[in-house]
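Q: You know discrete backbone vocabularies at least as well as I do. I have my own habits and do not want them to colour yours. No explanation is needed for now; the record alone will do.
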Amino acid sequence: MNDILMDHGSGGQLTSDLIDELIVPTFKNKQLTELKDGAILPNPQDELVFSTDSFVVDPWRFPGGDIGKLAVCGTINDLCMAGGIPKYLSCSLIIEEGFHIEDLKTILYSMQQTAQAAGVSIVTGDTKVIERQKGNQIYINTSGIGILQRKTSYQYQENDVVVLSGSMGCHGASIFMAREDIHLQGELLSDCACLKDKAMKAMAYDSLRILRDPTRGGVATTCMELIEKSDFGMELYESLLPVDSNVQTLCDLLGFDPLYLACEGRMLCIMNENDAKQLCDQLKDGAKIIGKITKEHPQKLYLKTKIGATRQLHKLSGQPLPRIC
């Protein structure tokens, strides 16, 4: 049998076969192999961090990753950005009838490899199958639990700076190029990646205020979210923003702004300048200080352009690139 059938989601024999022959062997661990309605996990003395996310990316496979890698990285990163060390994930699959089993194997293997590299176990889940043309091949929901490592808050200080861990917008641009079959000189890959190691390095600094990953809405929208609950404003410097040349070319051709393109393996953090410089040296990969916190315009975000002008930035309005994660 090469494709998913409706019976794979019936709860009957084919469902059991799918779980026993494909899913459990891929994610194999003690909690999952018990196949209870939920996983029994060790109860640590520390506070827990909990997050959930759903992934509907089109196409499901893209340069630099696939929906499986994206689902695992996305929830791991959310736990890390909340100051947690990720430990356990769930995996719920919604699969369209006719989806190739070999493609499902590719996705599950990608999830397993990504989780294993991050020291995370996929311990419970669910599978549903929907009729042909009622979905978009495959959707994935992942929820995650982690151990709180570092509490963060919006308690900034004047002249704190903003660090971005690498170039902007590679994920959003790569998805669009794959979807529209656009080819540019050079290779543009999604930045989809696990941020656990980078986040742990940032959490080691006493001056760290907060962490966030700029996914949907990009860097500009995320920066607005970082200041709208504080008494501070933020200024970004266009000359310091790291943008891949292919991303910039795509934006110039189609009128996109890289500040609003999604990242799936980039981290924003706010901390004092001295610590930020050391962190950038540790992170490498093009990590840069891109702006600063200011009291001059509370809850407003401004961009200092290369020609010396000032432009106010707002949250993303509309969906220039839907279904990117």
